[in-house]
Structures are given as C-alpha cells and as structure tokens.
Amino acid sequence: MKGKVAIITGASSGIGYSTANLLAGNGITVMLAARREDRLMQVRDEIIRKGGKASYKVTDVTSYDQMKELANQTLQEFGKIDILINNAGIMPISYMRKLKVDDWNRMIDVNIKGVLHGIAAVLPAMEERNEGHIINISSVAGHEVYPPRVLYSATKHAVRIITEGLRKELLPTQNIRTTLLSPGSVETELVNSVNDEEVLHMIQQEGSLDHSLNSEDIANAILYAIQQPSTVSVNDMIIRPTAQR
Ligand code: NDP
Q: Which regions span the lipid bilayer (predicted)?
C-alpha cells in the first residue's frame, strides 16, 4: 500500500474527501481533483498536517483535456498512477415529463463522460506498466430505476456497464484491476445538486436520508478493494445502510 499513487476526482467533499483522508492515512499519495480550489487546498493541507502526502489540481471532469492534464501532473509530481477513483458526480434529478434537458445533459457529462475521460487519461500510463486499479463509483441507482431518478439512474447504469466491459476487455493481457462500487444513501452534499422543489419535498417526505451511511463507510470499502493482493480483484460492491429498502 505504502508508496502507491491515487487520483481521486470529486475530492473536495463527501465520499471523495473521506477517501482521500483514509488512503493518505494508509500511506497512499493522493492527487485531489475537483472544481473548487479553496476546498481542495483545505483537504490537501489537512492531509499534509496529519503526515500524509497530497497534491491537487483544479479539474472539471467534463473536459478530457483537463483530465489529461491531471494525469500528466500526477506523473510529473509522483512518477506513476497506481489507482484512479472516478468519484465525481451530480444528481439534479426531476421527473422526465418536466423536460429538464439541461440537467439531463449535465448528468451525462459529469457522471458518464467524466468517468470515460478519467479512464482515457490514465489507461496509457497503466498499460505501459501493466499495472493499475480503476475504481468507479456508481450507485444503487445503477442497479434499479425509480422515478424521478431516471436520468441519474441511467448514468449510473452506464458506469456499471463501462466498468464491467473494461474489465473483460483488459482481462487477457493486462494486470489492471477494476472495481465498481455502488453506494446506497450516504450523507454528503450530493442532495444540494437537487434543484427541483417537487423532488426536494418528496425526499423529505420519504425520509430516504434518515438512515444514511457516512462517507467514511464508503471510503472503508474502497480501501478494502485496494488492500487486496494484486491477484485479487474486487469487481462489484453494493453498500447500503442496513435500513435502506
Ligand atoms: P458530493 O456532492 O459531496 O461530492 C461530489 C463531488 O463531485 C464534489 O467533490 C464535487 O466537487 C465533484 N464534482 C461535481 N461536478 C464535478 C465536475 N464537473 N468536475 C469535477 N468534480 C466535480 O457527493 P458524494 O460524495 O455523495 O458523491 C460522490 C459520488 O458518489 C458521486 O458519483 C455520486 O453519484 C455517488 N453516490 C452518492 C450517493 C449518496 O447518497 N451521497 C449514493 C450513491 C452514489 P466540486 O463541486 O468542487 O467540483
């Protein structure tokens, strides 16, 4: 574990923030990526204060150029990329009949294209060393569909299919592991990306956030997948609060 280098997207809050702290506490060097520079600086400083190794790069995952720059900076600063955690995501959900096409496109851009850009940015360096681990964050919504989460669910289904397809494609020749992690409800800032009053009311009514996991619970699962010997590939994990339907 010690000396490994991990890129974490969406490291400025929630699951990405907790994962960055946990991995750094276990000797992994972390490259933090997100859009909010003030938050990234805080996370980096906190990790360094606790004795960990971290750097950051302001990155919008919807830009393939910025993702390539993120990978290049990681290689320049730390010499290799062992792990990519494609974690950045948004959830501006609404009923499809409301035709919030801009929100559909934003979810597709961040949740699907962001993951693809991450894979494309790191794969050449991983293939060169014939070693690596790509961890993609899907959701329980990537295994089922309930309105008004249809578009969000579609993006998370795509992440699941992309991860499993990549695993099969790399299988014959490569020593690159893939992990799909599908959380249930986790208490983070994700709900802030919901902008539809009807949906916000529904979320309050159904009390779906009442029994949420902590972001540390998901970070622990990510660490578990990373900690396995290189011959063991943890491919698919669903982590729900025990009380979640
Ligand atoms: P948060 O809102 O706390 O974190 C989302 C992160 O994504 C932030 O760091 C944000 O940073 C980053 N982000 C958003 N858009 C972009 C972008 N265009 N480019 C780069 N970074 C971006 O939510 P979570 O921690 O909960 O979310 C992490 C992942 O977990 C997401 O993929 C989410 O779908 C998934 N998930 C969450 C669940 C939950 O209940 N919380 C359940 C199932 C899955 P910034 O704004 O600074 O760019």
A: none
